Design the sequence.
């Protein structure tokens, strides 16, 4: 496996696209990225729902134009309610979408804020664009971590060492934290500072802040 970027939080992706060639192409690119733990494809909404209900997917690449704009929109917004922490990426012909008067109509105005991976990106640049999108997805996933999940991360990056009296003492491992969070340490630190008033984060936050400083 070729590692195209440094490690961060792992991604498990679903590619929802009725075109088997473009779906397999993207799945192949994603599968080469470091800390992309798994990629599955679905050609129909029914298959996509089954994957989402049975696998720990946190990222969905979807072509709403190929699926059908109305059906795809209903699926995306419904899944956003059912699985609010999943990040959706629009994987479509961006120019065609921009020319369609109905693409951003009504509730779909939210699509303006979605990450986009353009299917028409030249082959030589496609891998680079996929890496950039995955990096943004990871940053978004890290930002949405709950207090409980932050505590879990803290436990993963904490080592136990003896203090001066020989008693066990927990100490954050900065190297391990940087392996998990990669380039987004600063963003996570800002998030912790901005949520310092949250009582659920008062215990977790200071320890992680020490670790990230």
Sequence:
């Amino acid at each position: 496996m070729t590692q195209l970027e440094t490690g961060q939080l792992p991604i498990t992706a679903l590619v929802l696209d009725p075109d088997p060639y473009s779906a397999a192409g993207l799945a192949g690119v994603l599968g080469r990225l470091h800390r992309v733990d798994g990629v599955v494809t679905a050609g129909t909404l029914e298959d996509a729902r089954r994957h989402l209900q049975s696998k720990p997917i946190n990222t969905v690449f979807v072509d709403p134009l190929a699926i059908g704009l109305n059906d795809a929109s209903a699926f995306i917004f419904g899944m956003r309610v059912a699985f609010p922490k999943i990040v959706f990426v629009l994987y479509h012909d961006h120019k065609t979408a921009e020319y369609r008067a109905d693409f951003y109509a009504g509730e779909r105005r939210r699509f303006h804020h979605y990450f986009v991976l353009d299917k028409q990106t030249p082959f030589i640049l496609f891998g680079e664009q996929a890496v950039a999108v995955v990096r943004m997805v990871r940053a978004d996933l890290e930002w949405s971590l709950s207090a409980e999940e932050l505590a879990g991360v803290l436990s993963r990056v904490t080592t136990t060492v003896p203090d001066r009296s020989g008693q066990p003492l927990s100490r954050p491992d900065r190297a391990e934290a940087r392996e998990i969070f990669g380039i987004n340490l600063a963003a996570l630190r800002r998030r912790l500072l901005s949520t310092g008033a949250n009582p659920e984060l008062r215990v977790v936050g200071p320890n992680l802040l020490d670790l990230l400083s």
About this structure: The beta strands are 11-16, 36-42, 59-62, 87-92, 115-118, 158-162, 168-172. The chain has ten helices and seven strands. Residues 1-7, 168-172, 195-209 have pLDDT under 50 and may be disordered.
